[in-house]
Amino acid sequence: MTELNPQHSSLPEQDHDHDVLLIAGSRPDVARLAPVATAFAESDRIRALTVATGPDPMSVHEAFEALGVPADITQLLREPPAPQPAAIASILMSRLDELLVDLDPSAVMVYGGGMTAAVAAQVAFWRQIPVVHLQTGVGTEDLLCPFPQEANRRIIGQLASLFLATASSGLNPPTGPNEIRVGETMYANRQPADLQFARLVRRARAGGPRLVLVGLDRADSLGVLAGLPELLDLESDMELVVFGELAAHGAAYPLLQHERATVVHNMPLAELVQLMAASAVLVSDNPELVADAPGFGTPAVLVDGPHVAQPGDSIRSILSPAVMTTVRQLLATAGVTPVPTSDGLEAARVEQAVAWMFGLCPSPLLSSPFPSSTEV
Asked: What is the pLDDT of residues 259-306, one digit of tens each?
């Protein structure tokens, strides 16, 4: 299989002096890069091309579509990769290298410390293409926590030309003179179209009740569904959203009567991204959904799942009877880190910084001030 857009003529017309590839390998990557693509298009100084790639490129492609920014290029894999990291990295490396040779972009932008970001940064460095690294301001002192993202983040930091910090961190010194704090671009995505979900997200981000998101599809997860009413009774400062196949089961009926519970069968991906990012805990029997959660900063509980724990892992694979105990333990620590506020200019700050890197404007900062540390 090849790219969905294999011909350059199918790409947006190049009428700019510079172009940047926004390379996403997971849905959390898309949540940060989709609003950045919109900001580039609105400013119209630099052409931005969105690239859906990674171990599961179609899920990335669908995430771009759901967030209103269709992928310009989707790199389908020639064959399914083996699950080992080295096998995935080797396939991505050759595919991304081919893409960079074909398009010869002015720069590439990657988010965080995922496998795709690390590989894309390495290949771009070999091709002497500048790397813009989004999320350099978040870090830990432990190379193994989170694993392997922290190690990947440090590797990318050695290769990047421009560092865009999504949040301040007292753990690490500034990466260098080209580190600019832009804020969390995920908050620049459009709000959920469903007003009920939009209100839930606003309340959670404003320090209101903690949000627990539960996605259940398998019949053997009915025990978890049946335990949710008791969890609501025990945790008075909590709101609950349940979705998935089991939301239509009779065991969900008591939740329909509860004022702090919302039950839906189908959850649009655009709403799911916002809810996951605002949640204190995600509980699901879907391994792919749980694997995405740490990228949104959300602890996750995989119900009866075949998960192999890694150092610093925020995913917990729990047998059904112990799920509620684990959720309560996670809720007890939720809310320790304040949720930053957003002024909606995070993606615009990214575009401004990249334009400055190319010499298209005199300052890397927008004229409007960045919120003070007390506001974020």
From this structure: 999 999 999 999 999 999 999 999 999 999 999 998 998 999 999 877
Residue 140 token pair: 């830990």
Q: Are 73 and 52 in contact (CB under 8 A)?
A: yes
| 172 in the same domain as 225 | no
Contacts of 233 (CB under 8 A, 6+ apart): none
285/281 Cα distance (integer angstroms): 14
> In this structure, are 122 and 203 located in the same domain?
no
One domain for residues 228 and 141: no
Q: What is the CA radius of gyration of the chain?
A: 21
Pairwise CA distance, residues 184 & 137, whole Å: 10
For the chain, what percentages of helix, strand and coil (3-state, to nearest 5) are there? Answer: 45, 15, 40
**Which CATH number goes with the domain that contains 70?**
3.40.50.2000
C-beta neighbour count of 80 within 10 angstroms = 10
Do residues 278 and 255 share a domain? yes
Q: Mean of the pLDDT values across residues 253-257?
A: 95
How distant, in Å, are the alpha carbons of 26, 184, 240 from that of 288?
10, 23, 21
Length of the chain measured in residues: 376
pLDDT in tens, 79-129: 777 878 899 999 999 999 999 999 999 999 999 999 999 999 999 999 999
| b (16+ CB within 10 A) / e for 227-262 | bbbebbeebeebbbbbbbebbeeebbebbeeeeebb
Long-range contacts (CB closer than 8 Å, 24 or more residues apart) made by 266-272:
267/215, 267/243, 268/66, 268/193, 268/194, 269/27, 269/62, 269/63, 269/66, 269/67, 270/66, 270/67, 270/68, 270/189, 270/190, 270/192, 270/193, 271/192, 271/193, 271/194, 271/197, 272/243
- One domain for residues 155 and 237: no
Cα–Cα nearest to 243, from 232, 255, 233 = 255
